[in-house]
Structures are given as structure tokens and as C-alpha cells.
Inverse folding.
């Protein structure tokens, strides 16, 4: 339910979404996330609380929607001229972002959402952009699933469940494994 | 803080822990987890709420401690006679357990704990038991970290963030990758 499809861009519905998202982002900067409430967000966004409940269901779903929207990258993955270089740049940035406080909060919010699978869809889209650059180059390309399993999964798993974060050297080793035919 | 070290097994402290853990397990079977409270647990366990707060800090930390205790396996990983076979048996059981409702709740609770890293310590211990069986067998053995990155991480990541669960065939492919020298 987080993102309704078929909305006219710039229509009333899109404007409501933008103003509610923006209110959430502002409030999260101003105060503790546990103290943010739906009526507060509604007041800031200039909508009624029932608009929010109708569209997002509850606060957890709304926070997750905002977190997912933040995940959509502003720009294409860096183009370094080689597949290995592009994957290194992408994986290092992903590790940085997910290790940060906003990244950790985002992972928590996304797990509470009703569409956590959207996360892998976004990651897959970014990785596909990288792979598409090297189609027809003659080199064997890994699948998107392989890259998600071997790069994104260990990065996130280590942040969530281990005492030691992933080191850059380890990330580079995983990229070499992923690139093996 | 979840687990204090140096406790005499069977001492007063160990008995308090066992009775509080047991009260939590009972209550989680009887009612919604969101409705379980510290005073309720204390009453069931025959201790005061302040005993619980002093020892665990808060309800989230206590639930996480119980979840981690559940993770400690009752028995050694299955011994099938080959490294590949042992890893398959272990990984398939891990996928099953983590995909289940109790497994998902456990992952959520562990993330709220102050010692989520204990999770990887437990996994590492199980995998080391398997590897120790094949030391000196002449075959190249993967490291525990490699097995965690290539088997445990994708299994959990897919459960938490993807729409499609890991398929057994995919798990077997990851085991082949992990076994490559």
C-alpha cells in the first residue's frame, strides 16, 4: 500500500505525498523519532490525520514509505569505465550509507513496512544499470541476484548482526568472488 | 548486558535467569507479544519487576536475550560424512528456522538487543564445529567468515528485504561458491 501506482505526476495525490513526506523529514530532523506522531505530521503537511491513515495505514508504514523514497538514488551509479570499478564504487557507497545512523534507521523502518521487498527491487535496478553498461563487452557478467547475494546481503547482515563492520578489503574480495565466471 | 559472564551455573543468578526466560516463553505462547509486560513476566517468574529492570534494562533487551538463548542450538550440526553435505544440512535448517514466524520474531528482537553481534558468534561456533571435522582431510576449507558472508547473510537478507525467499537450488549454488578455493 505504500506507493499507489498510476498516479498522475503532479496531481493532487502526488502533492499530498510530497507534502507529507517533506513534513516527516523535517520532523525527524527536529525531534526524537519516537516522539513523532501522525497528528503532528498532518498539521505540518496541511492535511488531516485521516488522510494519512487512509493512504498509509499507520505511522510505521508512513515512516517506511519515506525511508524507501530516500533509498531511491538521486543519480546513476558512478561510471568508472570498468565493471570492477563500478561495482567497487557502488558497494563502498552502499556500505557507507547503510552503516550511517540514517541508514540503520531506514533498514529498521523498511522491515516494518508492508513492502520490504521493494528494497531489493531498488537495489536490483541500480545494479542492472551497471551491468547494462557492459553488455556485449565480451566479459561474462554476473546476474543481479548474484550481486545482491554476494555484495548487498553480507554488507547489511554484518551491520545488523555482527560486532565488526565489513572492511573495504573484504568487500573487494566479495566483488572478486562475484566476478568469477 | 544481556548475558553476564562468570555466573556460577545453578547459582541464584542462573535460577533467576531460567525462571524469567521460562516465564517469557510461556507468556509468548499464551498471548500477543505486544501485550506482554514486565510486571506480568515478573509475577509469572516469582521475582520483582525491579529484578528484571536491574538485570536486563528493559523489555526489549529481555526479549532479545530470550531470542538469543533460543538460537543456541540444542545439538551439534548434522554430520553427513562430507563437508558439502554438512553445509547443505546446516544451511537448509537455517533457512527453515529463520523463515518461520518464531525465526522472524527472533531476528527482530535480536536487532533491538544491545548485543546483536552475539548472533554471528553463535553462527560462527556452529560452522567452526563443521569445519573442524575436516581439518587435515587434505581439502581446502573455507573460513567461517566466508561461510557467514556467503550462506547466512543472503538467507537472512532475502527473508528481511526481498519478496521471494531463497530457493534450495540457490542455496546449493552459494555453497558451491563458498567451497571454491
Amino acid at each position: 500500500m505504500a506507493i499507489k501506482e498510476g498516479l498522475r505526476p503532479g496531481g493532487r495525490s502526488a502533492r499530498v505525498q510530497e507534502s507529507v513526506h517533506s513534513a516527516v523529514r523535517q520532523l525527524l530532523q527536529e525531534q526524537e523519532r519516537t516522539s513523532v506522531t501522525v497528528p503532528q505530521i498532518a498539521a505540518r503537511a496541511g492535511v488531516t490525520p485521516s488522510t494519512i491513515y487512509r493512504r498509509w495505514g499507520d505511522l510505521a508504514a508512513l515512516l517506511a514509505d519515506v525511508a524507501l523514497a530516500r533509498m531511491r538514488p538521486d543519480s546513476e551509479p558512478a561510471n568508472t569505465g570498468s565493471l570492477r570499478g563500478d561495482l567497487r564504487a557502488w558497494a563502498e557507497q552502499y556500505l557507507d550509507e547503510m552503516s550511517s545512523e540514517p541508514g540503520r534507521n531506514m533498514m529498521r523502518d523498511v522491515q516494518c513496512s508492508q513492502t520490504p521487498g521493494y528494497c531489493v527491487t531498488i537495489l536490483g535496478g541500480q545494479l542492472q544499470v551497471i551491468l547494462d553498461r557492459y553488455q556485449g563487452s565480451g566479459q561474462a557478467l554476473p546476474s543481479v541476484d548474484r550481486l545482491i547475494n554476494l555484495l548487498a546481503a553480507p554488507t547489511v547482515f554484518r551491520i545488523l548482526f555482527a560486532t565488526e563492520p565489513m572492511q573495504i578489503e573484504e568487500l573487494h574480495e566479495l566483488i572478486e568472488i562475484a566476478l568469477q565466471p
